[in-house]
Amino acid sequence: MSGGGGSGGAAAQQTAHSLAFRVMRLCRPTVHVDISPLKFDPCDLLFGEDLFDDPIAASNLPRLLSSQSNSSVVDPSDLSYRSRYLLQHPTESLGLPGLLVLPQSFGAIYLGETFCSYISINNSSSFEVRDVVIKAEIQTERQRILLLDTSKSPVESIRAGGRYDFIVEHDVKELGAHTLVCTALYTDGESERKYLPQFFKFVVSNPISVRTKVRNVKDTTFLEACIENHTKSNLYMDQVDFEPAQHWTATVLKAADNSSEHNSLTRDTLKEPILIRSGGGICNYLYQLKLSSPDPAQLKVEGSKILGKFQITWRTNLGEPGRLQTQHILGNPITRKEIELHVVEIPPVIILEKSFMVSLNLVNSTDRVLGPFEVWLSESDSLDERAVMVNGLQTTTLGEVQAYNSLKFQLSLISVQLGIQKISGITVFDTIEKKTYDSVLEMEIYVDSD
């Protein structure tokens, strides 16, 4: 707990009050570090690290250590303090006597934490005060949050020298200056109604920063996030989850793990928090984002820049919790052509000089009806160089495609060369707008002999 003081307005300063507020912040203590001189074991001075290289000396080591430990026992009658630098127990070398220290000030308050305060209103006069109405609220630049209000049930009385205590909590969700305002309306010993305001100011800082980079690779979006610790204590990240926007799915990408399935299940059940060290420690995360459904009706969604947001929870060294939610992460919308051609299915086995069917999907990415269409295989290569050709009619006629919709069809092809071959040059022609769409779609197939 840490004490704090405050001051009221000019009127409050001119009026003598029987009551006064005292505010103590409730937070986790810190580990006390012993600042006494470093202690050591005399054996560390007598024996070097190469002692175990000599088998004879190593065999006599237990006897030497036992004799040395017996001689290092502190004699209460010895007032020379000759043994004050000697270790009496192995844990003394840590410099941690096992004590916890309560904070002596408000300390640093960070966004995402819960501000908890113990407030005591003291009657320092020699008279009893009655009908005490107490209010406590947090004021920020944007809003005023009421934490306590006893207007409906005032404190009946506070005796001379007595006090009334209460605890308030507030989830810190804003950065910058905050003011804890404590007020009391009471009747003093002279039956005079008085009003006491006191203010306790503190500043909320950002514990972490989240820097992101977005890259688009064809239909896949990659999101890289770097989390940096700005506090003076280590942060243990319990949860760093990316919540994708509607119609998106997110997969976290991690390094390959060669551990057994049993160890993997145990690790998922007992998830170890990720440590981000104090004073600028960082941790990087990589996510792969894709549309959750290839339904063409969602093409409007793909133009949105909102990818999602992060939910981050952590704990400090002694378990003090914190939680943050970032703003929406924005990315570059995936640009699409008016007409796109996608592969739906290719036969797993393709035999030389035997026809096979390739299923394709023609997608209309505009808000208007397009078509009818004609589809053919371009003849940029000579007949001798072409490995895959159309079987049958060289031009396939398709009907209209509604706005943000698609049309599935099949092409009959035949391969005249063995091995790995490439299907390319599929051209789509709009017979109404007289516009040709050169498809960049390329497929690789393996052609086997009969």
TrEMBL record:
Pfam families: TRAPPC13_C (PF23643), TRAPPC13_M (PF23647), TRAPPC13_N (PF06159). It comes from the Eukaryota. Residues 17-204 form the Trafficking protein particle complex subunit 13 N-terminal domain. InterPro entries: TRAPPC13, TRAPPC13_C, TRAPPC13_M, TRAPPC13_N. Residues 348-439 form the Trafficking protein particle complex subunit 13 C-terminal domain. Residues 208-328 form the Trafficking protein particle complex subunit 13 middle domain. Belongs to the TRAPPC13 family. This is Trafficking protein particle complex subunit 13. It comes from Castilleja foliolosa.
